[in-house]
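User: Is it possible to get a 3D structure for a protein together with its bound compound? The compound here is PRP. I've pasted both below.
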Amino acid sequence: MSELHVLDHPLIHHKLSVLRDKSTGVKEFREIVGEISTLMFYEATRNLPTEEIEIETPVAKAKARTLNNQKVTIVPILRAGLGMVDPMIKLLPNARVGHIGLFRDPDTHEPIKYYCKMPDDIAESTAIIVDPMLATGGSASAAIEFVKEYGCKHIILVDIIAAPEGVEVVRHDHPDVDIYVAAVDEGLNDHAYIVPGLGDAGDRIFGTK
Ligand code: PRP
Ligand code: URA
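Assistant: Yes, that's possible. Here is the predicted structure of the complex:
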């Protein structure tokens, strides 16, 4: 069964309080999404295997552990997932990026795919799928399915805010995928928005409304 990791930390709580506030403007919203993403990436990569190498410090030979040969692909779900990519790449500059374009049909709330581009070596990579919101779970479940179709076997999902319904769907559809979230909220409203949530993540990141 997949594991659900809820990042319970004062820094995360504090930053989430700013994100959720409807008076937070685009610039600050985008910055805080980035800061939370950095903290989440730190946790989500905790179990990546490292390799022992020998280096020379100015003082002596030493054994050290490296991620140099680890293939990691960050997969943002467009649009809102894009806001999480740069801070993660800063921590792991050799990571690849694969994009999946999905939007929710406003009436059915079903995900509609409009773009997909993965690196050639995605099958041997650890894929870290990122999106600020896990609402019905339709987008995340579809994104995981697409990445699996490319032969990728090790997949991690990172969402900032989740609804219990979305967590349930992803865990049911993909019991092999661990999920990292900063918060699990009360549930969904009639428009399948997370309550209390933070509104439309894409619009708030890109200032489109
Ligand atoms: C939002 C969000 C997720 C999806 C979550 O994207 O960023 O991708 O909804 O909802 P679900 O769990 O019910 O599928 P949206 O469809 O609004 O597209 P956007 O990022 O382009 O705004
Ligand atoms: N997408 C969002 O951006 N916010 C929600 O609450 C649900 C889906």
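The chain has a mean pLDDT of 97. The helical segments are 10-20, 26-44, 85-91, 138-149, 164-173, 201-206.
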